[in-house]
Amino acid sequence: MTLLESEEILCSRCRLELPRPGLFLPKPNWLSLKFDGWMDYQDAHCFFLFSEGGRVQHLMHQIKYKGAQDVGRFLGVWCGSELNKYNWPFTYDLILPIPMHAQRARDRGYNQAQCIAEGISSSTQIPIIWGGIERIKNSQTLIHQNRQERFQVLEEVFQVINPSLIQGKHVLIVDDTLTTGATMLALGQKIKTAGARQVSFLALAALQ
């Protein structure tokens, strides 16, 4: 579809048709249940609902595998501007995109979670953590594994190199797509142990 002069990346009709569950849902809800009982956290958000074969899956595929960094930043800006309506930027101190293993980052050329985080940061003015936290293991595919199995694989995947960056801070962990929540939980527990005051989660899209 050809975009109008006033439109960017997505046409207005497509934007209206993308399924969004709403932010700051009363807890417990279907999303918070992915995290409840696993660790102490404050918030869990997603901007879009992910479904097999849907438009959101197509967008996530473009961002993750097709080099569409501009789409990731655009959707991050949109997400951040919506969160501004809830006075949200005053809640969190830092944004932490899920780190990518160095080898995978070299192969892909970018980190899709970082693109999304850059868009959110530009809307909210919340700073992004650059460096200090690394993914030290390039884990095998987690497809077809349940949350417990994924968490066991991911438990020692992340390493906090510079704890001073997060000590006493409320950190918002950002990723592109959330299925079981195991990756976010593994990183959340790691930074909480390293001194983060509180942890929250935001996925651009989540599987209900």
Task: Please tell me about this protein's structure.
The structure is a single chain. The chain is α/β, with parallel strands linked by helices and about 210 residues long. The protein is about 35% helix and about 15% strand. The strands form two sheets. A four-stranded parallel beta sheet has the order 1-6-5-2, sandwiched between helices. A two-stranded antiparallel ribbon has the order 3-4. It is globular, with a radius of gyration of 16 Å. The N terminus is likely disordered.
Uncertain stretches: 1-6
Beta fraction: 15-25%
Characterize the biggest β-sheet.
4 strands, parallel
Strand order of the largest sheet: 1-6-5-2
Using only C-alpha atoms, the radius of gyration works out to: 16 Å
Instruction: Give the overall shape.
Output: globular
Short description:
The protein has 208 residues and is an alpha/beta fold.
Q: What order do the helices and strands come in, and which of them pair?
A:
Blueprint: H1 12-17, E1 44-50, H2 55-65, H3 69-84, E2 94-97, H4 102-108, H5 112-124, E3 133-135, H6 147-154, E4 158-160, E5 170-178, H7 182-193, E6 198-207
Parallel strand pairs: 1-6, 2-5, 5-6
Antiparallel strand pairs: 3-4
Short key terms for the protein model shown above:
208 residues; alpha/beta; disordered N terminus; two-stranded antiparallel sheet; four-stranded parallel sheet
